[in-house]
Structures are given as C-alpha cells and as structure tokens.
Amino acid sequence: MNIRIATREDWPAVHRFYSTIMAEGRTYPFPEQQSLDEAEPWWMERPPGRTVVAVRDGEIVGSAKMGPNRPGRGSHIGTASFLVDPAHQGRGVGRALGEYVIDWSRAEGFRGIQFNAVVEVNAPAVHLWTSLGFDIVGTVPEAFDHPEHGLVGLHLMYRRL
After folding, report:
1. CA–CA separation, 120 vs 146, rounded Å?
2. Is the dihedral of CA 33, 36, 41, 43 positive or negative?
3. CATH architecture, domain 2-113
4. Which of 36, 34, 30 is nearest to 12 (CA)?
5. Which of 69, 82, 148 lies closest to 110, judged by CA?
6. Residue 18: its H or E element
7. Which residues of 21-47 are buried (b: 16+ CB within 10 A; e: fewer)?
8. Percentages (nearest 5) of helix, strand, coil residues in the chain
9. How far apart are the first and last CA of the chain?
10. CA angle (60, 66, 71) in 5-degree steps
C-alpha cells in the first residue's frame, strides 16, 4: 500500500466512500447527501493541513486529513480524520493512515495530536487509536446521535508527540 498526498483528481474516488460513510451515520457528524462539490471542502484540506490517500493495487482504499487542531496559540496540537472504504476495512488501511499521520505530525513540529470526536461505540476506532498510543482524556456524554445506539458519547483522545 502506498500513501501519498491527495490531488483534486483523487476527490471523486474518495467521495464515493466518503458519501457512503456519511450516509451510514455511525462515525461522523458531517452533513449527509452532499454533492461532490459540497463535500470537497469538508475533506480536502488546504495548507497548512494535508489530505492523503491510501492506494492499494491502483485503487484508492482510504484517506486521511490532518492539520492544526486550533489556530494561533493552539496550532502546536494537530488533529486528523480518517476514512477507510468499507470494502477494505479490517485490512490495515486505518493503521497505516494513523501511523502516517503520527509521523507527519511529528515532522511538522506538532507537540501532540488531539481527536475531538471519536464515537465511543466505534470499537474498531477506539481500539486502533489506543493501540497507537492515544488516551481517552474525556467523553462528552450523549454528544452523538447514533442510528442504532441512540445518544452516545464522543471521546476526546490525545497522543503526546
């Protein structure tokens, strides 16, 4: 698998699984049913951020976006979001993207990485991030309306770099 900086030409392939994941409503509070053009600014970061794609056998199988969590005096802490094509989940794509983000964030001089909203019932994500050294530093109760579980918490997760 190769992870590389996403180009504008990659966006339609990413949008295919972006729209599927948003429609499922299990992991992100992003708007559903966004057109290709409406969704692009929600995922394709501009500098100082970055969006990457994971490519396996010529197919885009995942993507991550990363950058400063806050402006100004909070810009020393990074953040990131991740998408793995549902057809390719459980094959190491998320882990590879997570490791890429950690390495990139360290190289860019961030002091830590903060995930603002990890859905507490998303066990694969919580397991992955804890295995990569993130701690749950707090949970906002009932902050996410999950389609099966109803109102569930959102974890704030942090990893010092």
Report:
1. 10
2. positive
3. 3-Layer(aba) Sandwich (3.40)
4. 36
5. 69
6. helix 11-24
7. bbeeebbbeeeeebeeeebbeebbbee
8. 35, 35, 30
9. 25
10. 155
The pLDDT, as a whole number, for residue 27 is 95
SS3 8: helix
Digitized pLDDT (tens) for each residue of the chain, 161 residues in all: 999 999 999 999 999 999 999 999 999 988 889 999 999 999 999 999 999 999 999 999 999 999 999 999 999 999 999 999 999 999 999 999 999 999 999 999 999 999 999 999 999 999 999 999 999 999 999 999 999 999 999 999 999 99
Question: Residue 80 has what pLDDT?
Answer: 98
Taken as a whole, the chain contains a residue count of: 161
Long-range contacts, 37-46 (Cβ 8 Å, 24+):
39/15, 40/11, 40/15, 43/11, 43/14, 43/15, 43/18, 43/81, 43/83, 44/6, 44/8, 44/11
Q: Supply the pLDDT for residue 155.
A: 98
Domain boundaries, the chain: 2-113
Name the DSSP letter for residue 88: G
Structure tokens at 99: 């490791």
pLDDT at 31 (0 to 100): 87
Amino acid at 7: T
